[in-house]
Design a protein that fits this description.
Strand 13 and strand 14 form a beta hairpin. The protein has 439 residues and is of the alpha/beta class. The longest helix has 20 residues. The chain has 2 domains: 221 residues, Periplasmic binding protein-like II (D-Maltodextrin-Binding Protein, domain 2), CATH 3.40.190; 208 residues, D-Maltodextrin-Binding Protein, domain 2 (3-Layer(aba) Sandwich), CATH 3.40.190.10. It is built from 22 helices and 15 strands. The N terminus is likely disordered. Strands 1, 2, 3, 6, 13, 14 and 15 form a 7-stranded mixed sheet that branches. Strands 8-11-7-12 form a 4-stranded mixed sheet. A two-stranded antiparallel ribbon has the order 4-5. Helix 11 crosses helix 21. The chain is 44% helix and 16% strand.
């Protein structure tokens, strides 16, 4: 589908930014002086914080409540904003010079504002953190431009491969040796499907582009390959000639044609994501912690195992989803915002994140006690350097939108079986969107 520039901007969320914020390099609002003596220490007054709604909003409100019990100088007012409105609402606030002091936003969207000089340069503050080297590099990459850092991670939402240990045992599959490449995965999924009685080897939201991008891309990243090439400003698609991508699409095509995926996956838009896995009828479920574990009952949790997502011939990766904390230029209480940000980065609040369905962003949070309490959360922390997410201004349009080129490519290749045409169409779609975003 060919998008006009106007429709592309509206679909991607860039319309508000394109009409609101000046071009790159313009100082749209005054930048707080992060080098001022006492910055980020013993603040007072109120910090206005915006965050995403739902479970993230609840988790951050809980953290703010705990912060308030530690002191009575500084109050944090947490305002949840629906995902679909976040970019536009923040851009509008910047235009009106009425910005919040701290934003907790989808890490994949951080660069939309960093690229337009809307966030405060936090480089010296981050460099001074004694634990900076254990912070999620995937999140940090999305908050860094030209060697300067404009944010820190707050929480992670990672894609991993969860599996039903009971079904694998019945099928004679050893997860320690069988889940390291596509050959092993496909053989294991076939064995589970052969158990019959409504049991399937694998499950995915086949009609949800967002889920597809979240759980399918890491198979390609595990090889050191991305779907986008170049730096922002000169990016293009890396679809045609991308052999790991082709093999990943062929892997999913085999799952579909061999009846290893439930037929319901074809129309599954994610509204009941993980229900079949939690019910015990699915062998393998690529997903995040919340639908696979947090939403499951105790019996389902006990029979669940987890590994990173592998590449066609080995390697491993996972999607470094989640949120970053940034301080907008023009913030009235930037010092208080940084004080609360440091509280959120402290080990105790990080170790409480699984209670809300999320993963810490500090690898040193995976202590022995933590691993005992949350054994299905430690895999990304023990392999934190394997996490990745692409740095681009066009993620939503490329992957999340209903007519995204990645989603269309996946469905055409997997369900229609036309892999060559799907890849060719995908290349055109990626190039068109990236060109429009950068023109």
């Amino acid at each position: 589908m060919r998008l006009s520039r106007r429709r592309f901007l509206e679909a991607s969320g860039l319309a508000a930014l394109a009409t609101t914020l000046p071009g790159c390099g313009s100082a749209i609002l005054p930048e707080p002086d992060v080098s001022a003596p006492g910055f980020g220490e013993k603040g007072a007054g109120t910090v206005q914080m915006w965050c995403r709604g739902g479970a993230i909003g609840a988790a951050l409100q809980t953290a703010a409540d705990k912060f308030h019990t530690t002191q009575d100088r500084l109050r944090v007012v947490v305002t949840p904003v629906p995902d679909a409105q976040y970019v536009t609402k923040l851009a509008t606030a910047i235009r009106g010079e009425r910005v919040p002091d701290l934003v907790d936003m989808d890490d994949i969207n951080s660069m939309l504002f960093i690229y337009r000089d809307a966030f405060t340069d936090l480089t010296p503050l981050v460099q001074a953190l004694p634990y900076r080297d254990v912070l999620s590099p995937g999140h940090m990459r999305l908050a860094t431009r030209d060697g300067r850092t404009y944010g820190v991670p707050s929480l992670a939402d990672n894609s991993l491969l969860f599996y039903n240990t009971d079904l694998l045992e019945k099928a004679g599959v050893d997860p320690a040796t069988s889940l390291k490449d596509f050959e092993g995965l496909l053989d294991a999924a076939r064995r589970v499907r052969e158990l019959g009685d409504g049991v399937y080897g694998w499950s995915i939201g086949g009609n949800s582009p967002g889920i597809q991008g979240f759980v399918v891309q890491p198979h390609v990243w595990a090889t050191g390959t991305d779907h986008i090439k170049g730096r922002i400003g000169s990016q293009s698609g890396n679809i045609e000639g991308n052999e790991p991508l082709r093999r990943t699409l062929e892997f999913y095509r085999a799952l579909w044609t061999e009846d290893i995926l439930p037929r319901a996956n074809f129309a599954d838009n994610g509204s009941t994501w993980g229900a079949d896995f939690r019910a015990g009828t699915i062998g393998f479920f690529p997903a995040s912690y919340s639908p696979a574990v947090l939403a499951a009952d105790e019996a389902a949790q006990k029979r669940t195992g987890v590994v990173l997502l592998c590449g066609p011939d080995g390697g491993s990766s996972f999607f470094d989803g989640g949120d970053n904390l940034c301080i907008p230029r023009g913030a009235k209480n930037a010092s208080g915002a940084w004080e609360f940000a440091k509280f959120l980065l402290d080990v105790p609040p990080q170790q409480a994140l699984p209670e809300g369905g999320f993963t810490p962003i500090r690898s040193d949070a995976a202590t022995r006690d933590f691993a005992t309490k949350y054994p299905l959360v430690t895999a990304p922390l023990e392999n934190i350097d394997k996490g990745y997410a692409p740095v681009t201004l066009s993620y939503n349009s490329l992957f999340n939108q209903a007519d995204s080129p990645f989603g269309q490519m996946f469905r055409r290749a997997v369900f229609d079986g036309d892999v060559d045409a799907a890849i060719s169409e995908g290349q055109h779609g990626f190039d068109t969107i990236l060109t429009q975003a950068q023109s």
